[in-house]
Each structure stands twice: as structure tokens, then as C-alpha cells.
Design a protein that fits this description.
The complex is a heterodimer of chains A (264) and B (255).
Chain A: H1 17-20, H2 23-39, H3 43-59, H4 63-86, H5 91-114, H6 117-126, H7 131-160, H8 170-175, H9 178-201, H10 220-242
Chain B: E1 14-19, H1 25-30, E2 44-45, E3 48-49, H2 55-59, E4 62-65, H3 78-88, H4 93-106, H5 122-134, E5 140-144, H6 152-167, E6 171-175, H7 179-185, E7 188-193, E8 196-202, H8 203-207, H9 210-215, H10 222-229, H11 242-254
Parallel strand pairs in B: 1-6, 1-7, 4-5, 5-6
Antiparallel strand pairs in B: 2-3, 7-8
Helix pairs in contact in B: 3-4, 3-5
Classes of the chains: A mainly alpha (264), B alpha/beta (255).
């Protein structure tokens, strides 16, 4: 078992137009994509939104890492598809919901792969969000890879004590994760307490007004992105309200089992 | 990253793996029970190729104790923690009881058997982790930094315990930075630097060699330094531990 999935959310400094974008305009764009994916339930609409991202991922030169993330989410994607399908949704609708999920994950993956946590913190600060909150947020983001490394160590340690993760029935396999999760949570809590003490002993929040050496500025490309974002949003809402998109449906259907309500 | 490692470890050997931070010590020992598989070449444990066996089946022979006990403690009591691995290996209830009791006694943990491992001190948690591996009596015992956080007395106990294991015919391989501890134990020393083995020999030979020791960001043991300063008196330069230094010097002074 490997935690490579997180690679697709890890920032790496590269010199591409996407990396150079201001975090604020990038975030607006991602939010727009997010809103649009939730707006549409139509297979064609969602596929188009998904396809919009692909050139951007290509432009940001992080296709390989993105693919890893996609592989990691494949399990959940399939789960969503099956859950929808067996609870009576049509084939096209189930597929649409799966694409919706993939789009959401990949848009966030694109954002975090191309935005440094420091820039993100700076952007939040300039949006007048209190520094303690900003710090909490950036720390959380920064700790994800650290905890992923920890998780791998815990898995190795428990495997060395004879724990077999890929053995037994479903219940047994879920139970197998207890020896992994508890040390992980305990060490995360220990670490956060140490972090708090270290921060306090270094005078965190001693001065009420923080100044920063770097300030973020919007450039031409950022304005272009914002205009594109607004255009996309208006176009999306217009389509949704006035233009009925063609429905595709395949004549594959199973009798509905009332197990769960429509998931996702 | 390990490069060109060619290493044979025999039954009943006591080995210290030393080297600077990032030299590849932990990477090396993770190959011993198949947690890491070689990308080139092969690792054989009692003739079994680690690429073809599961970690759980290799773990029966190779007990690996990790550096940080917090990465493996999760049970409600020390007793359950130590019994965990035995349950994984499907031992019977009676054997589990006997073995856990014995190991807790040896490692001075009996009084904690009903307490939660999380309430113990760092050094005690480290000993629980050690107990949780030694309890299934593996043939090869691999310890990652066993002396960290242990006071002098506990280190002494640990040393005696390790030496006892070695006399029972077990192989003990430990990763450590603690030159003084190694100097007192006289194991075979393997020095790693930048993923390569730079020296392999007896502790006397390697820890008294300034060149080797400096290359791996280590220091000479105190006794070795003392012997170096007494070099013009013609003292034996290969002495590294307190006891032999004392007997040697006394003998020399007496005439």
C-alpha cells in the first residue's frame, strides 16, 4: 500500500504560466469550475467541464502527478458509479456523477499542485483574514505530506509485527486499519502540541499588526483569468437555464434496489 | 538510496550499522524483512528471496524494532500491545501468556502490564516497542537506534540483554549513532556513507580509526581519544572500552 495518491496534491515549484498565476485568481477559477460541476447533472455538460481542465494540467506540466491522483481516486469513482447504478439511476446519470466527482478532485489537485502554501497564506492574509486562522490553514496544508510520510512509517512498523493489511474479509480488513490509525492520530496530536509550544515560546502573535515583505499583485494574466472565469460562469448558467443539453442514455438498467438514496 | 551493497550476516553475529544522517542505514535494514525490495540485485534471508515472500512471513525470522515507538503503539494496555504480534502469528493463548509474561519481566515492564502505553515515559515506550518484537523470539533482531532516550542504567541493561541474546545464538543488528555504546559492546561495525559501505570490521579496528570515523560524521570514543593522547607512551591504540583500558593501563603502570 502506498500513499503516492497525495503526490497529486503536493506543490512543486515550476516555471509555468499556471504556477505564476495569483492564488486569488486561480482560486476563483477553481471555485467557478466547482460551481459549474455542481450546477450540471448532464453527462455532456460535465464532460465538457472536465475537458476544460486538461489543457491547463498539461500547461502546468504536472500530468504525471495528476494521473497518480486519478489512479488513487479510481476506487471511489467506481464506488460512486456502482452505488448510483444499483440504486436505480440510469447509466448516463451514474456516469455523470462519477465524472462530477473526478472533476472536483482533479480541480483541487490542479490548484494545490501549482500553488505554494506560502503564497496561499499570503493571499488569505491580504484578504484580511485573521493571521491565526491563516496560519492554521497553511499549517494544515503543509502537514499533509508530513503525515503521509508518518503513515508509511506506521504501516511499515505494523507490517514488521506481522500485520497483514490485505488479508481477510471486508470487516477484517477494516479492522486492520486500527493499528495504523491510532498511532497516526496519537503522533499527530503529539506533534501539534509540540508545535503549539514551539510557536508560543517563539512569541507567536506577539505583535498585533503583521507586515509582510512580499505583497501579491494581480497581473495581466490574472485579469484575463478572472474575465474568463466570469464568462465561463455566465455561459454555464445561461446554458443551464435556457439551452436544454441533449440527453444521452444507454438502454442499460438494473431494477432499482432501495438500499441507499442517490449517493453524491 | 543504496549503491553496491554486498553484505553477509551470519547467525549469532552482533553488528552495529553506523553512518551519518541520510547515509541509508534505515533503508538498509528495511530490506532485511522485505519492507523494501531491492530494485537491483537480491536479498536472501535464510535462502528466501525477499522479493518472493511477504513481510509477515519474513517477520517471523527478522524482528525489526523501529526508532520511534509512537509509530507502533496503539493498544489499551502494555500487555495487549506486546501480545499483538503473537496473535498475528496465530500462537495459542497459553503460549502468548507465557511469552508475554517472560518478556515483560526481562525488560522491567511487568509493573506496567495493565497501564496504557501512552501514559509511559519515552524510554519506557521504547522498551514496550522492543518487547513487542522480541516476544516472538525472532532469529534475527534488527534495532533502529535502540539507545535514544534511555538513561545510563537502562542502556547498561539493554547492553547486557543484547549480549545475552547474542550468546543464545541470535543475530543482532543495530543502527546507532552512539559510539560510546558501541565501544562498550564490541560488535562488528559496518560504516555506511552516502549509500555505500565504506568500512566493515571489528569495533576496535574501525572506531579507533580517525579517518573512518570522521568520514561518517562520528567521533572517536572517549577511551580511543585518551589512547591517542597517550600514543607517545606506546599504549595500544586499539583499545576502545573503559574496562580493557583500565586493566591495560594498570598493568602498564605496575610495570
Amino acid at each position: 500500500m502506498s500513499l503516492r495518491v497525495f503526490d497529486g496534491f503536493k506543490f512543486k515549484k515550476l516555471n509555468t504560466p499556471i504556477h505564476k498565476l495569483d492564488p486569488r485568481s486561480k482560486f476563483m477559477f477553481i471555485i467557478a469550475i466547482f460551481a459549474l460541476t455542481l450546477l450540471f447533472t448532464n453527462l455532456i455538460g460535465l464532460t465538457v467541464i472536465f475537458l476544460i481542465q486538461l489543457p491547463l494540467i498539461f500547461l502546468a506540466k504536472c500530468g504525471k502527478k495528476w494521473l497518480k491522483t486519478m489512479k488513487g481516486t479510481a476506487f471511489f469513482a467506481i464506488l460512486i458509479f456502482i452505488m448510483n447504478f444499483i440504486t436505480g439511476a440510469s447509466f448516463a446519470f451514474s456516469l455523470a456523477m462519477t465524472i462530477r466527482f473526478i472533476t472536483l478532485v482533479s480541480s483541487f489537485s490542479l490548484f494545490f499542485m501549482t500553488t505554494s502554501p506560502d503564497d496561499l497564506g499570503l493571499a488569505l492574509e491580504q484578504m484580511k483574514i485573521p493571521y491565526t486562522l491563516v496560519f492554521t490553514f497553511t499549517t494544515a496544508v503543509r502537514l499533509v505530506p508530513t503525515i503521509a510520510v508518518d503513515a508509511q512509517t506506521v504501516i511499515d512498523a505494523q507490517k514488521s509485527r506481522g500485520l497483514e493489511l490485505e488479508k481477510g474479509n471486508l470487516m477484517k480488513r477494516i479492522k486492520n486499519f486500527i493499528p495504523i490509525l491510532i498511532p497516526l492520530i496519537v503522533s499527530a496530536i503529539r506533534r501539534s502540541m509540540e508545535l503549539a509550544e514551539a510557536l508560543e515560546s517563539r512569541g507567536f502573535n506577539a505583535s498585533k499588526k503583521r507586515t509582510s515583505y512580499l505583497t501579491l499583485k494581480l497581473h495581466k494574466l490574472d485579469y484575463a483569468t478572472l474575465i474568463l472565469t466570469i464568462f465561463l460562469l455566465i455561459f454555464g448558467v445561461y446554458l443551464k437555464l435556457y439551452v436544454p443539453l441533449p440527453q444521452i442514455d444507454l438502454p442499460i438498467k438494473v431494477p432499482p434496489i432501495q438500499l441507499f438514496y442517490k449517493t453524491f | 538510496m543504496l549503491k553496491g551493497i554486498n553484505l553477509e550476516i551470519y547467525e549469532g553475529e552482533f553488528i552495529a550499522v553506523m553512518g551519518e544522517n541520510g547515509a541509508g542505514k534505515t533503508t538498509l535494514i528495511k530490506h532485511f524483512n522485505g519492507l523494501l525490495k531491492p530494485t537491483f540485485g537480491r536479498v536472501l534471508v535464510d535462502g528466501i528471496d525477499t522479493r518472493k515472500a511477504s513481510v509477515a512471513s519474513l517477520a517471523k525470522f527478522v524482528g525489526l524494532v523501529f526508532q520511534n515507538p509512537d509509530h507502533q503503539l496503539f493498544c489499551e494496555t502494555v500487555w495487549d500491545e506486546v501480545a499483538f504480534s503473537l496473535k498475528n502469528f496465530n500462537y495459542s493463548e497459553e503460549i502468548i501468556k507465557a511469552r508475554v509474561r517472560k518478556i515483560l519481566e526481562i525488560l522491567d515492564l511487568t509493573k506496567y502490564s495493565d497501564s496504557s502505553p501512552f501514559t509511559l515515559s519515552g524510554g519506557e515506550r521504547k522498551r514496550v516497542a522492543l518487547a513487542s518484537v522480541l516476544v516472538w523470539d525472532p532469529k534475527y533482531i534488527v534495532l533502529d537506534e535502540p539507545t535514544i532516550g534511555q538513561d545510563y542504567r537502562q542502556k547498561d541493561r539493554l547492553r547486557n540483554f543484547i549480549l545475552q541474546l547474542v550468546t543464545q545464538g541470535k543475530s543482532v543488528i543495530m543502527v546507532t549513532h552512539d559510539v560510546e555504546f558501541v565501544a562498550e559492546c564490541h560488535p562488528r561495525v559496518i560504516l555506511l556513507s552516502k549509500g555505500r559501505i565504506v568500512a566493515d570490521g571489528s569495533a576496535e579496528e574501525i572506531l579507533s580509526n580517525e579517518e573512518f570515523v570522521n568520514e561518517c560524521s562520528l567521533e572517536l570514543p572517549q577511551i580511543s581519544k585518551l589512547m591517542k593522547t597517550l600514543k607517545d607512551l606506546g599504549v595500544n591504540q586499539k583499545i576502545i572500552d573503559v574496562y580493557s583500558a583500565k586493566t591495560y593501563l594498570v598493568k602498564m603502570l605496575k610495570g
